[in-house]
């Protein structure tokens, strides 16, 4: 399962071994116990990866053969590829931009996507220094 946590200023991508159903069920139980609202709805999430990342061609192949229904790649411009995922958005139901997006892909694709995202973060931190 991939989990993207969105805050006002950024997002974080995690690859979890837990199934999507188990994770959502635990999240529902937690919000009930603490008396908070929880909204779960079908949605999409997008983020950018540098177009020159090593391994991006492998992801393109995975999408072409296995993940067409859940994962789409589109050239944003000459420097970035937009990754769009289909899944579920969990939030407190308010109109703010904070929440969690979850989806399930093949283990191989999840691992590769997480690896590429980590590499992109490393590149961005080097450039900002």
From TrEMBL:
NCBIfam families registered for this protein in UniProt: alr0857_fam
Organism, scientific name: Fischerella thermalis JSC-11
InterPro entries, per database record: Alr0857-like (IPR054664)
Protein name: Uncharacterized protein
Taxonomic path: Bacteria, Bacillati, Cyanobacteriota, Cyanophyceae, Nostocales
Lineage top rank: taxon: Bacteria
């Amino acid at each position: 399962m991939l989990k993207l946590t969105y805050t006002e200023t950024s997002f974080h991508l995690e690859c979890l071994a837990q199934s999507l159903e188990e994770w959502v069920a635990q999240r529902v139980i937690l919000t009930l116990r603490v008396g908070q609202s929880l909204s779960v709805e079908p949605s999409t999430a997008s983020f950018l990866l540098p177009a020159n990342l090593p391994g991006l061609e492998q992801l393109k192949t995975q999408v072409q053969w296995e993940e067409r229904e859940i994962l789409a790649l589109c050239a944003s411009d000459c420097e970035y590829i937009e990754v769009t995922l289909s899944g579920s958005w969990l939030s407190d139901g308010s109109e703010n931009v904070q929440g969690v997006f979850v989806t399930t892909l093949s283990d191989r694709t999840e691992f590769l996507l997480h690896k590429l995202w980590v590499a992109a973060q490393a590149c961005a931190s080097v450039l900002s220094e």
